[in-house]
Amino acid sequence: MRNTSVVIPTLVRIKAGALDRIGVYARRGQFARAVLLHNKELDQTLVDRVNQSLAENDIGVLSRVEVLSSSFEHAQEIFQSLPPKTDVIIGMGGGKALDVAKYAAFLTRLPYIAVPTALSNDGFCSPQSSLDFKGKRRSFASAMPYGVVVDTEVCLNAPRILWLAGIGDSVAKITSVYDWKLAFRIKGTQVDDFAALLSDATVFQLMAKPDHDLEGMRLLATALMLNGIAMEICGSSRPASGSEHLISHALDLICEKPRLHGLQVGVATYMVSQLQGRGTDRIAALLEATGFFDGLRQDPFIRKEWEAAFKAAPAIKSDFYTILSENDKTEELVRIMMTDPRLQGVFI
Ligand SMILES: [Zn+2]
User: Fold this and answer.
1) Domain 160-343 of CATH type 1.20.1090.10
2) Architecture label for domain 11-157
3) In the prediction, which pLDDT does 139 show?
4) Domains of the chain by residue range
5) How far is the CA of 134 from the centre of ligand 1 (A)?
6) Which pick of 63, 92, 286, 333 has the fewest CB atoms within 10 Å?
7) Burial grade of 229 (CB within 10 A; 0-12, 13-18, 19 or more)
8) Residue 249 Cα, ligand 1 centroid: separation in angstroms?
């Protein structure tokens, strides 16, 4: 069923230098008292730039909180310690801080501005927060941000592997939309045509210029943001997450040291597209153009962990039909992992 109260960001700025204008944007939104949440390990000069911009525009920072973990308990603690007069929450940094800030904003019903400093997944503008609950990563219903501010220059200076992860999470929309339509054909799962169309279109946008430069960052940020909005439109994660995400979720549970979400998802996308029998050339073209496989070869995945994840993936979500539901695909996926020329050196 379509979400009848779709919330989309009021403020969207994706450009070089946007970080130094956060105060201007907040002032235009008529905010005066902010709380700033950021990752503990975030480069202090980036935090200083935001602080300076807020100060220049007379936005008081009531408190500055270092986000230490992405646990549900920590997010609740932060929510409980928010100063009563806060009128906007600004979350800055990587996934952890953004998920916690988004969830705290959801609990308080305060407007939230997301300021990702790298583009490694589509979580910065989605209606869910990914938090650790009782030792396991879970998705919690959350609020869409009021604002999304992406400084493309800051993202370009982030480690290249984070960009590759963002490419991996983006390309996954091809297989997730296919799985969604398959679920409709086999199980009658409702497909929201517009959300599916939007999600699919973002990958084509990105393919127009999959470069590690300012324009490439702008396209990737836009693609990831629109994927979040597609989820908000249909009220489900279906347009952004299919069988490739099930494999990644299984890896998160199985691996001793799970890797970046988008890296796991990108490889799984390439593999499951071969089961789906379509899209593989498009997916491979984007992953090769960005040097995705080469990036992975520098720190290969563990074959045994992936084999276990193939087995566990179909049971990760109940009532979620994908290409993996039809029959046991483990053997076929293992064969692809071992023999596909593009995957040579990606696994050890
Ligand atoms: Zn994802």
Assistant:
1) yes
2) 3-Layer(aba) Sandwich (3.40)
3) 86
4) 11-157, 160-343
5) 21
6) 63
7) buried
8) 10
